[in-house]
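Re: the request from the purification team.
They wanted to know what the chain is likely to look like in 3D before they choose a buffer screen. I agreed to run a prediction and write the result into the notebook, where they can find it.
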Amino acid sequence: MERSSSSGDELRASLEARRDLGPEYEDSLVEGFLEKMDREIDKRVDDRLAARARKEGPAVRPSVDAGQRLALAIVSLATGIPATIGLAFSGLGDSILAFILILVWVGIISVNLSFALARRRQG
């Protein structure tokens, strides 16, 4: 409430000054009033942003998080698929091949799961 009354006081003061000084000073009085209002608006926006930052904590750029997730997905697929294909054509016995493939994919899944859990704890 205090802010709106100070804005009203500023406007009344500008109008009184215009009456006292005459219409030839109208442009400079309006310009001065608008500059004061502009500063007041900037102050209000800064106050709101500061209050929001205090409530929400530090901002996390979603693009960084999304980029990390995309990179991990690409690396996982770029590792898992060639390893699977290479092992399939390696001529190893079925049981050894199955064991190695399970190890490769369990390792990839573990890395992805660890990343996801760490992100969830941070957020």
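For the purification team: Residues 26-56 form the longest helix (31 residues).
Please add any questions underneath this entry.
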